[in-house]
Design brief:
Number of strands of chain A: 5
Number of helices of chain A: 9
Helix content of chain B: 25-40%
Radius of gyration of chain A: 17 Å
Radius of gyration of chain B: 18 Å
Distance between the termini of chain B: 31 Å
Number of domains of chain A: 2
Strand order of the largest sheet of chain B: 2-1-3-4
CATH superfamily of the largest domain in chain A: Cobalamin-binding domain
CATH class of the largest domain in chain B: Alpha Beta
Distance between the termini of chain A: 26 Å
Oligomer: heterodimer
Strand content of chain A: 5-15%
Order of helices and strands of chain A: HHHHEHEHEHEHEH
Structural class of chain A: alpha/beta
CATH topology of the largest domain in chain A: Rossmann fold
Shape of chain A: globular
Number of domains of chain B: 2
Largest interface: A-B, 21 and 21 residues
CATH architecture of the largest domain in chain A: 3-Layer(aba) Sandwich
Number of strands of chain B: 7
Strand order of the largest sheet of chain A: 2-1-3-4-5
Helix content of chain A: 55-70%
Number of helices of chain B: 10
CATH topology of the largest domain in chain B: Rossmann fold
Order of helices and strands of chain B: EHEHEHEHHEHHHEHEH
Largest sheet of chain B: 4 strands, parallel
Shape of chain B: globular
């Protein structure tokens, strides 16, 4: 019942209530992983679905994601002991020349909520920074985001730089953003394309065989 | 002559007997387009679509398609839109209408600022947020309400946190709008930079499509790069 209430609070973007319920569950010794999988993940699944179907729009998606993130802040220290539950490491960034990050941030929150370790490089990220992050963090996946047709080609630049640095085979490259298509992803040599945050998370699980 | 961009009557002008060209213009730039039609003395019919489609860009291509279906009898219909976040959907619609073309460009900011300057600015200041006269006039409806900031004011940082510059592409000096633009700058916490763009590159791009009207329609794509 408390999980349902928590899901509802997240779906409604009611961060104070969601945080209070999460803290209450933690204080009552409810397992953090159960809270995540029973309360938070189902909520974001619903939100992702409703967004895809045009029932809700960006503001509602954003406040739900914000509530989710606030709850994750409580759970993450507790989840750290579940090393075996970590589904993989993801490095995210909006490509060079592009400062749009709303979609990327939602992907990050949903991936964290699904058990991935997420490192967000922010916006306007060039190939060198991705290369450094790959060398330092050894991610399984890098996720490249772009909102502008003018910055999409920078995804290809980054992929070519990974090839040049002999890193291409060490990571799965996922791409996303409003102007992108599967055809474009194929044409630049990306491994996967996701049209929205919910499918990005599912695609990542599937690519790493952790679905 | 001024027009309210979302006035339904905007789309229903009297048909001029001598007009062989129509312009189908987004309400967000209808005043700029009317200015230059008057300045250049073009004999065209003006039809409009609500600027509010920009809040949900998926609506633009279907709305243009429906309107083009109504505009029979013109040798050419110049659709005054950029790609406008349709990511090619608008161009695919135009491909289906032999007489329809649009000026090249991704959006009105690029058209009004000018292609070269816009490209330089995008490289140097990718965090630039643009205002137009329409956007200043309709700030509450288009931005505050459209982005849900009236309901969730604290999302401001989410939407504008990465903005580092504010450029107002002004149609003309207007004390009321200038004051409002300064208020918007204060709200965003950015310094206001005003450029008197009028119609910018849009004027020459439209001129290439509107004048002179050939005896037979030009081949698709001529004088127009409809794929941005």
């Amino acid at each position: 019942m408390r999980f349902e209430e928590l899901s509802m609070a997240v779906e409604n973007g009611d961060a104070p209530t969601a945080v209070e319920l999460t803290q209450g569950l933690v204080d009552a010794d409810t397992d953090a992983l159960e809270i995540l999988e029973g309360g938070l993940v189902p909520a974001m699944d619903v939100i992702g679905q409703r967004f895809s179907e045009g029932e809700i729009y960006v503001p509602e998606m954003l406040i739900a994601a914000r509530a989710m993130k606030a709850c994750l802040g409580i759970l993450q220290p507790l989840l750290a002991r579940y090393d075996s539950t970590k589904r993989g490491t993801v490095v995210l960034g909006t490509v060079k020349g592009d400062i749009h990050d709303i979609g990327k941030n939602i992907v990050g929150i949903m991936m964290e909520g699904s058990g991935f370790e997420v490192h967000d490089l922010g916006t306007d990220v060039d190939a060198d920074r991705f290369i450094l992050a790959i060398e330092e963090l050894q991610p399984d996946i890098i996720g490249l985001s772009a909102l502008l047709t003018t910055t999409m080609p920078n995804m290809k630049t980054i992929i070519e730089a990974l090839v040049e640095a002999s890193l291409r085979d060490r990571v799965v490259v996922m791409v996303g953003g409003a102007p992108l298509t599967q055809e474009y992803a194929d044409s630049i040599g990306a491994d996967a394309y996701a049209p929205d945050a919910a499918s990005a998370t599912e695609r990542a699980k599937s690519l790493l065989g952790v679905a | 002559m001024s027009a309210r961009p979302d006035d339904p009557a905007l789309g229903l002008p009297a048909r001029r007997e001598d007009a062989r060209v129509a312009v189908l213009v987004c309400g967000a730039i209808v005043n700029e387009v009317r200015d230059l039609i008057a300045r250049r003395g073009w004999t065209v019919d003006v039809h409009g679509l609500p600027a509010s489609h920009h809040l949900y860009p998926k609506e633009i291509a279907p709305a243009v398609e429906a309107k083009l279906g109504e505009l029979d009898g013109y040798e050419r219909v110049v659709v005054v839109y950029g790609d406008c976040g349709t990511f090619g959907a608008l161009d695919r619609v135009l491909e289906r209408f032999e007489h329809a073309v649009r000026p090249s460009g991704p959006h009105c900011y690029e058209m009004m600022m000018g292609a070269r300057e816009f490209a330089v600015n995008a490289t140097r200041r990718p965090g630039t947020y643009f205002l137009t006269s329409w956007l200043v006039r309709n700030w509450e409806q288009a931005v505050l309400k459209g982005l849900g900031l009236d309901r969730y004011p604290d999302l401001k940082e989410v939407y504008f946190g990465n903005s580092t510059a504010l450029v107002y592409l002004r149609r003309e000096a207007d004390p009321r709008l200038d004051a409002k633009a300064r208020e918007i700058a204060d709200y965003l916490g950015l310094e206001l930079e005003v450029r008197d763009s009028r119609a910018g590159d849009l004027e020459e791009r439209l001129a290439a499509l509107v004048e002179p009207v050939p005896a037979t329609s030009r081949k698709k794509g001529e004088a127009c790069a409809s794929k941005s």
